Amino acid sequence: MLDDLIEDNIDRLGIMGGTFDPIHNGHLVTAEAAAYQYELDKVVFVPSANPPHKTEQKITDAEDRYIMTILATMNNSKFGVSRLEIDRGGLSYTIDTVQTFKEMLDNVDLYFITGADAILEIFTWKKAEQLLQECKFIAATRPGYSLSKLEEGIYEEYKEKIFQLKIPGLAISSTDIRNRVKIGRPIKYQLPNTVEAYIKKRKLYKEE
Ligand code: ATP
Ligand code: MG
């Protein structure tokens, strides 16, 4: 994936980090809106290996999450998937990922895309202040979370670095999808058909 990006000689790259357990339409709508609004040449989805904030929770095998991310992004020519964090292993820190992308791509303008919940936790991330120097952030609205905090306190200092993106609210979450599968409720139209089929085939989320 990094090799592709170098050949394409891109100027503006979006990075969408996540656990993607599973990837769903909330992620896809957010990435598409960010690409359009900020004229990104590409958005690369980076499934995490072992997320630092979720160590006590059981996470689906990285290879399954990677395959679902590929299936979901396959028919969008602007979207790609990177194995960077999965192959690096251990705990996945955004600062390491952003630095690797910057080293590989000369003069690239990086935009890290998040939902409202994730941006409001940014100051708990490793080397947050440095991260905010290394790239810009696009924070999308997400039902249940308010972006109004971005107008106050420490966030005020970073208003040139954190951009707010209003998207049609999709109250979809991976947690809810996992729970739905477990109790047999429908998940159709919340995520691509191909991902739904993969979940069925691999019998994911059926038990604890
Ligand atoms: P989980 O419930 O397991 O935490 P999730 O649905 O929050 O899953 P993540 O993989 O944790 O998905 O999220 C990756 C990124 O996508 C985060 O920045 C998150 O804020 C954003 N995101 C997830 N769902 C939405 C949504 N419905 N609308 C906007 N952003 C979203
Ligand atoms: Mg989440």
From TrEMBL:
Pathway: Cofactor biosynthesis; NAD(+) biosynthesis; deamido-NAD(+) from nicotinate D-ribonucleotide: step 1/1. One of its GO terms (biological process) is NAD+ biosynthetic process. Residues 15-180 form the Cytidyltransferase-like domain. It is an enzyme of class 2 (transferase). GO terms for molecular function: ATP binding; nicotinate-nucleotide adenylyltransferase activity. It holds the Pfam family CTP_transf_like. Its EC number is 2.7.7.18. InterPro entries: Cyt_trans-like (IPR004821), NadD/NMNAT (IPR005248), Rossmann-like_a/b/a_fold (IPR014729). Keywords: ATP-binding, NAD, Nucleotide-binding, Nucleotidyltransferase, Pyridine nucleotide biosynthesis, Transferase. The keyword Lipid metabolism does not apply. Catalyzes the reversible adenylation of nicotinate mononucleotide (NaMN) to nicotinic acid adenine dinucleotide (NaAD). Belongs to the NadD family. PANTHER family: NICOTINATE-NUCLEOTIDE ADENYLYLTRANSFERASE-RELATED, PHOSPHOPANTETHEINE ADENYLYLTRANSFERASE. This is Probable nicotinate-nucleotide adenylyltransferase. The gene is nadD.
